Amino acid sequence: MKTVVRRLSGHLLRGLAMIWVVTTLSFVIIRNIPGDPVRGQYEKLIEQGMSPDQAERSTAALYGFLPTGSLWDQYTDYLNGLLHGNLGQSLSTPGTGVATLIGSAAKWTILPVLGGTLLSFLLGVTLGVYAAIKRSGKLGDALAISGSLLHGIPQYVIGLLVVAVFSTLWPILPAGGPVDIDFAPGFNGPYIASLIQHATLPVLTYALASYGGWILAMKSSVATVLGDDFIMAAELRGMSRGILFRYIARNAILPLFTILALSLGLLFGGAIFIESIFNYPGLGLLLVNSIGARDYALMGGTFLVLTVAIVVANIAADLLYAVIDPRVRKGAEA
Amino acid sequence: MTRTSAPGVRVKDLTVVYKTPAGELPALGGVSLSLAPGTITGIVGESGSGKSTLALSLLNAVQPPGRIKEGVVEIDGLGDVVKLTGEELRRARGRQVGYVFQAAQNSLNPLKTVGKQLLDLGRSHDFDDLPALLKDARALLGRMGLDGGRVLDSYQHELSGGMRQRVGIMFALVLNAHLVVLDEPTTALDMITQAAILKIVRDVHHERGLTTLIITHDMGVAAEVTDSLAVMYGGRVVEHGPTTEVLGSPRHPYTKGLIRAIPRLSGDIDEARALPGRPPTLGTIPKQGCVFRERCPLRIAVCDTVDPEPITRDARTVACHAVGRLATPVVPKEYV
Amino acid sequence: MTVTSPVAPAPISLRRNFWRGVGRVLRRKPSRMVGVAIVVLFVFMGVFGPLLYPNPLPRDDNALYASPSWAHPFGTDFEGTDVLALVVTGTRYVLLAGLATAVITVALGTLIGLLAGFHRGRWDTVLMRLTDLQLTIPGLPLLLVLSTVWKFTSPIEMGVVLGLLGWGGIARAVRSQSLSLRERGFIEAAKGLGLPTRHIVVRELLPSMAPYIAMNMLIAVTGAIYAQVGLFFLGVLPFDANNWGVMLNLSVFGGGALSSTAALPYLLAPLLAILLLTLGIVLVVDAMDEIFNPRLREE
């Protein structure tokens, strides 16, 4: 138990350090954007007839720090605001907090990413076992090759091809937006059906993009376990095929769970391409649009949230490992 | 059909080959050996002599790219193991033949407690009375000086090397197998633990009335526990007989060399003389003639062309042209 | 084991054997020849491509989004420019940026990995924390954010930034390699012989890792190509540069290639270029793997 706590606190410390680095980076970048948007906003408001005091406060609400004052004061202001959960105000959607925008975008990212990743994980792991057992067979070979090819192709290429095939050449599924606007949002049949229809291609793309990696990882993991002494020992003790299979599967899948948790975190960043292609209003699209609209507070906030997602995924991966691997759980060296 | 008495084992003309880029190479070249019911037989030899392959053959478990090319492995109550396949073979493993692993250090699933793996074993062999199985295991572990309850609740990484080895022995015995094969059971253990394990093996052997086969490269281990001793070289049994006689008056030049090579604790280290030359590997075993001739001090012309037949005289078997010449052959072959 | 062989003739015959080995490995699987051919083709396009076409590329107002034909094998774009010409002339930026990235990634990664692996202790800890940080920072979002201050007009600039964001993987791999060499007594033996540190690193460690580093370099090239094309595709960078990503962006967000089939060839041409280049590099990596990994060669 002690070791788990120690590992966890180490992770938390490292995660905090990383979040600090990222926020500092955001701050430095926002301060160094050509044309100084913070100063620009302040001056624009004064031109519009605001008093300097008002303009100052209004700009500070946007970016989290005062437009005047020294760099150090601005920096500490910014960090202080973040510590109090204040991500600033959005410029492109006036009157809305950055946190609110991020909150409403998050659900469009989380559900498809989760669905697509779990789908490809299950598929990839199952086929990976097969590819490892039938290593010398034709089908096993084909599976491994398809895995490395899919693994090598960038997400956006897969996404564009998926759209080209299922939406342009053979139009059976919609490729834009999260839902048809004709239907009233709520828990009703047509709305949900439309949601699912619109989510199908993005989820398929997530699945295809990561499936190759799972096949390859599982294949090599199973191959390693098959060479382990305890598998042969179990065989020589006359363990039944079912039990033997469970021994192999559980030991082989263990390292993959960590990758799963980590890849969920990374996929939030990867969602940028897929959400842009499918015009899906998640965090990735939010980041791209904030840059297009020069909404720097929103940009900084989204970047921060994507980073936090990775930190959380890191910690979750470690905890997960501790739960499923008794060697870590009891805190002994394997 | 669990036997309650010790089975006898007869291996005849067993040839095991390994598939390599250079073709199929023999790891065992027509080995014949029998284990008398109720005895402890030891097999000694350098690494690569085929002793582990022979041990695995008793369970028809030679691993690919190796395979049993021909020969018979007859175990009382099981018949010819070489002919067993599928479920029949699986059931024989563990239930009738217990196997203790060379790498028993790592012979347990790291993700499950010993007890859970024991239950898996029981279910695999259709044991209805699992509590009784656990009770037997606890008793066996207790017999070996361990706290049975605690060990069953432990994961592999929580046990020391000696404890793991005892757990391995428990797994081999708990289903009441009466033939037990131990492949290098004390390698990688310290001297004290080694002695304890050997004592356990001997005691349990007598208590349960087992037929036991111990593979080792350690002449000391062989001398301590075995009743009869077989010496292997280049995939052949070159000498076999009662342990005291084989060690006391070795006949085969290889056995003599092996014994001379052992340094004695109380003697001058210079007295120990290493065997000249190197043991053959799969690829360098001569295709014809005696496999030992390159290192043999008694080499004669016939050794280059004819593989010596094992010849048995007063319960001792030797496969050597030079030795065979000296004595008058009585029975041309072991176990006809 | 000898540590150095200052005798001159040996390296020459070794090299000849090496090339013969390369030839044999390539011949064994024809697909690898194809891989080499593809990579050579793209390098040719990158070096000579812009010389083959007039600058700026001719437009044909009568043939906007023309279908594929002999004159325009992949059709034309929204202003009637030949799509194939766009792909060919766009290769230079893509490859240059990829190459610059690979050089920086490998140089930084190797240096940091070697330092960490060689000087255990505090150095190691600090450098590995740095590497962890580099590896966990979300790269693509960071690139997007960076694009607000940095316009990446030259491919070299793009390469430098991508390289600075991508050395972590190699650093970690090189460190573990040098640790394993260390474990095998490699370094201790050399130290015992009284060889200076620089000699050990340059003459003993690097050569045994060179093949590994070379393969990672190729993989880094593919990663860099994806990242830069992706950035242009997202449209966060100004379109001064001719790049496959710009084509993708204009066809998808401008030409509506995803809603009508007319602009589809315009979209597919750069995609095909990316896929082909990936395939070429994967096949070459496969061949290199076998050339440098004697264990795979045997069988």
From TrEMBL, chain A:
Q: Which UniProt keywords apply?
A: Membrane, Transmembrane, Transmembrane helix, Transport
Q: Could you tell me the Gene Ontology terms of the biological process aspect for this record?
A: transmembrane transport
Q: Provide the ABC transmembrane type-1 domain boundaries.
A: 106-321
Give the record's GO CC terms. plasma membrane
The residues forming the signal peptide are: none
Membrane-spanning residues where?
12-30, 110-133, 153-173, 252-278, 298-324
Which topology term describes how it sits in the membrane?
A: Multi-pass membrane protein
Q: Where in the cell is it found?
A: Cell membrane; Membrane
**Family in the record:** Belongs to the binding-protein-dependent transport system permease family.
What protein name applies here?
Answer: ABC transporter permease subunit
From TrEMBL, chain B:
Q: Which SMART domains match?
A: AAA
Record SUPFAM superfamilies? P-loop containing nucleoside triphosphate hydrolases
Q: Which Gene3D superfamilies match?
A: P-loop containing nucleotide triphosphate hydrolases
Q: Which domain of life is it from?
A: Bacteria
**What InterPro entries does this protein's entry cite?**
AAA+_ATPase, ABC_transporter-like_ATP-bd, Oligopep_ABC_C, P-loop_NTPase
Record key words, sorted: ATP-binding, Nucleotide-binding, Transport
Where in the numbering of this chain does the ABC transporter domain appear?
9-259
GO molecular-function terms, A-Z: ATP binding; ATP hydrolysis activity
Query: Which biological process annotations from GO are given for this protein?
Result: peptide transport
Q: Which PANTHER family match?
A: MALTOSE ABC TRANSPORTER, ATP-BINDING PROTEIN, OLIGOPEPTIDE/DIPEPTIDE ABC TRANSPORTER, ATPASE SUBUNIT
Q: What is this protein called?
A: ATP-binding cassette domain-containing protein
From TrEMBL, chain C:
Principal location listed in the UniProt entry: membrane
Question: Which InterPro entries does the record associate with it?
Answer: BP-dependent_transpt_permease (IPR050366), MetI-like (IPR000515), MetI-like_sf (IPR035906), OppC_N (IPR025966)
What's the protein's topology in the membrane? Multi-pass membrane protein
Q: Which UniProt keywords apply?
A: Cell membrane, Membrane, Transmembrane, Transmembrane helix, Transport
Q: Which residues form the ABC transmembrane type-1 domain?
A: 91-285
One Pfam family of this chain: BPD_transp_1
Q: Where in the cell is it found?
A: Cell membrane
UniProt keyword Cell membrane present? yes
Q: Name one GO biological process term.
A: transmembrane transport
| Entry-linked SUPFAM superfamilies | MetI-like
Family that this chain belongs to: Belongs to the binding-protein-dependent transport system permease family.
Name assigned to this protein? ABC transporter permease subunit
Origin species, per record, is Herbidospora solisilvae
Question: What lineage does UniProt assign to this protein's organism?
Answer: Bacteria, Bacillati, Actinomycetota, Actinomycetes, Streptosporangiales
